[in-house]
Amino acid sequence: MEVPDYFATAPVLYPEAEEVFKSKSLFFQKDCLVWIIDAKTEATTHKKTEQALLWIT
Fold first, then answer.
1. Which tens digits make up the pLDDT trace of 22-39?
2. Cα–Cα distance for residue pair 43/40, rounded to 1 Å
3. How many angstroms from the chain centroid is the CA of residue 38?
4. What are the domain boundaries of the chain?
5. Is the separation of the CB atoms in 17 and 56 below 8 Å?
6. In what helix (H) or strand (E) does residue 42 lie, and over which residues does it extend?
7. How far apart are CA 5 and CA 45, in angstroms?
8. Which residues contact 40 (CB under 8 A, 6 or more apart)?
9. What is the rounded CA–CA span in Å between residue 47 and residue 27?
10. Contact between 45 and 6 (Cβ < 8 Å)
11. Structural contact between residues 17 and 57, judged by C-beta atoms closer than 8 angstroms
12. Does the predicted TM-score (pTM) go above 0.85?
């Protein structure tokens, strides 16, 4: 699954999140990304991205 641009650039704010995210299983990565992508509005997408990064770190 391709990582969306807004999620791929987010580790700039949370550098440790990228390392932790990549160390997780592909199932975890996909589940996390699908949860974010399923947002109906751009504001919700950003909110979910921020929340996911906080959970990961």
1. 899 999 989 998 998 899
2. 9
3. 12
4. 5-56
5. yes
6. helix 42-56
7. 12
8. none
9. 22
10. yes
11. yes
12. no
